[in-house]
Amino acid sequence: MPSYSSPEFSIMGKIFLKLLLLSLVLQIASSTRTSSSINNIDWWCNQTPHPESCKYYISTQTNNSDEIKQKSWFREILVQSALKQVLIMQSEAQEIEQSMMSKRHKALHNDCLELYENTIFHLNRTIECMHGKRSCSPFDAQTWLSTAHTNIQTCPTAAAELNAVDFKVSKLSNNVTEMISSSLAINAGFMKKSENNHHKANGRKKKFPRWISSHDRKLLKSRSSKKKTDLVVAKDGSGHFSNIQDAINEAAKRESMTRFVIYVRKGTYEENIKVDVKNENIMLVGDGKKKTIITGCRSFKGGYSIYYSPTVAVDGSNFIARDIGIENTAGPTMHQAVALRSSSDMSVFYRCSIAGYQDTLYALAQRQFYSDCYIYGTVDFIFGDATAMFDHCHIYARQPLPGQGNIITAQGRNNIHKNSGISILNSRIKAAPELKPDVDKVITFLGRPWKKYARVAIMHTFLDTLVNPKGWSPWNSSDFALDTLYFGEYKNYGPGSSICDRVEWPTFHAMTSSSEAFQFTIHGFFSDPIFLPSTDV
């Protein structure tokens, strides 16, 4: 053994001291990197509307040594963090045993499972968009994030509607909502504002959104589209199937999700049909809105959630319906009873009839275009949080329950960064034949705010005498959202179009500028502003 003063010990001691010093330096560097990463995450998250949830989930999503150097990277991490939590919510919900649940709780549980699945689908689509794996714009991503945000909130909303106080909604629901809200805020920064101020909103010609391919335009307009079908549905057994859902299920089995046309021959089909989120590019063609009719009678009072009550429910993107009648016959005494619920992105309803009473048309989410359609209802009969446009449509208020009034729209935009809203263009708002004798006794409003940032515009539309001079109604006589909503009118005409006695809210807009109105036209409403043309519309 060497002595303390020996040369051998001196050499070993120096080596030991160097190793000790190196270890201390590495610890300090590691601590510095961790501190730097934390400060880096804090800096990014402080730019979101929900910094605390952002900091918590982002710190678990990234390595301590990672620094977020680009806004695009931060945006992607936000969406990935939200997706991770939704997957946990889905897993937890799938483990819950349904056998001991009441019928109502089972229905709610299944609603939530479906909404979680759809949310996962749209968040994955958003991440693919950000990775450049699909052709899309920030506006597309904003649409899909808006849909995910709406879906997550629809589950607890459905439970509250049914007064299911003991129904357990995932504890992660609020946190996921906040993460998606933060994603919306950050992604909004990628949507550049158009610098061209020459847009006009004075066109009244029938047009279609740009997402509709030339092939689909031909299918919409062609008289021979019934001959170019993949399947035929006929009640008399002369087609491939005698009910519509079987044909839709058959279409879901195809390997390539290209346009698939189902011709539904004339007849009344008593069924509730559903097009799943992965069953894309379905087209239903009927013999006319009064000849091919899909009918159901589910209702809130009958024990169904509003989400589950529709006669027709569509989630798969690029859905088209032409010359079809859709109705919910539950009647006004059964309260909310949806005829159509759509979350189909870039969908088209052409020459269709959608009839019910309260909550007729649930435009839940994503981009939807209704052209030359007839829509009937009483209370909030066009509602939801979609980016929904009604062009050259006929909107009829019906006879409500005694003591009730009619409200045409109830828009559900609950986040200022969502690109959702309702735009009614070149249409006609009138009393249905059953209401005409009592039109002076029933108050009818153009809309009321369902959610805080409700957004509705009515332009170039005929407003008949049924429209109350105030035009718009508060939510249940409260001042809810009166300082945050956007209700606008532009160049309407008819006896109910005068804005002289309209509500005096600061958020009501009697638009006089075509550039302001442009945002609610076909090109302005559905497009990323960076891609807008500088032509009249």
UniProtKB/TrEMBL annotation:
Tell me which residues this entry annotates as catalytic: D380
Gene3D superfamilies attached here? Invertase/pectin methylesterase inhibitor family protein (1.20.140.40), Single-stranded right-handed beta-helix, Pectin lyase-like (2.160.20.10)
Gene Ontology process terms (BP): cell wall modification; pectin catabolic process
Q: Which organism is it from?
A: Lupinus luteus (European yellow lupine)
- Catalyzes what? [(1->4)-alpha-D-galacturonosyl methyl ester](n) + n H2O = [(1->4)-alpha-D-galacturonosyl](n) + n methanol + n H(+)
Record's protein name: Pectinesterase
Q: Which residues form the Pectinesterase inhibitor domain?
A: 36-186
Major localisation: secreted
Transmembrane residue ranges? none
Question: Which residues are the signal sequence here?
Answer: 1-31
State any single GO MF term.
enzyme inhibitor activity
Pfam families recorded for this chain? Pectinesterase, PMEI
